[in-house]
Structures are given as structure tokens and as C-alpha cells.
Design brief:
Helices cover 65% and strands 10% of the residues. By secondary structure, it is mainly α.
Length: 103
Amino acid sequence: MDNMYDFERTIEHQFDSFCKTVLRNQARNLYDENKRRNKILVSLELLTQSELCQLAICDIYESKYIHISVFDYDLPIEDVLIAQAIESLSKRKILFYYHSFSI
């Protein structure tokens, strides 16, 4: 009976030791992974204004533009006053100015 009890305790100690080893190795792996990640990643607070501007993106919404159709071309124009001025021009002048400025 004592042999069985000693055997169970030995198995419990081995299992306990195994679990501690697994947890220790996993903690070491996570620490190493965080260390590698911290070498690559940079906090946004440390970036200069010019570096932050390179990361910025402005969304462009179609509803923001006034569309003028000229000879099967759709010209998106953002400013209302410019759109009114362009509409007062002839269609040929509109295409000439639009293509010369958009190139």
C-alpha cells in the first residue's frame, strides 16, 4: 500500500515539475517575442510631425465633389465657386483647361 502511495506522489511531483517547466518556457518565449517586437515597433509619441504625416490618409468621398459632364468625361470638382465658373465656359475650353491642369 505504501508503494502505491509513494508511486502516486512521485507521479504528482513529476507532473508538477513538468507543468512548471512548460509555464517557465512559455513565459521565456513570450518575453523573447516581446523583446523582438519592441525592436521593430516604434511608439507613435516618438515620431516626428513629418513622419506622422507620411502615415496619414485622407478619405475622399464622392459626395464632396460636383460632377460636370463634358463630352463623355466626368469632371469631379470640389469647390462650388470653381464649378460655377467652369460651367459658364464652353465645353471645349473646359476640356482644354481640365486636361492641361490635371497632367
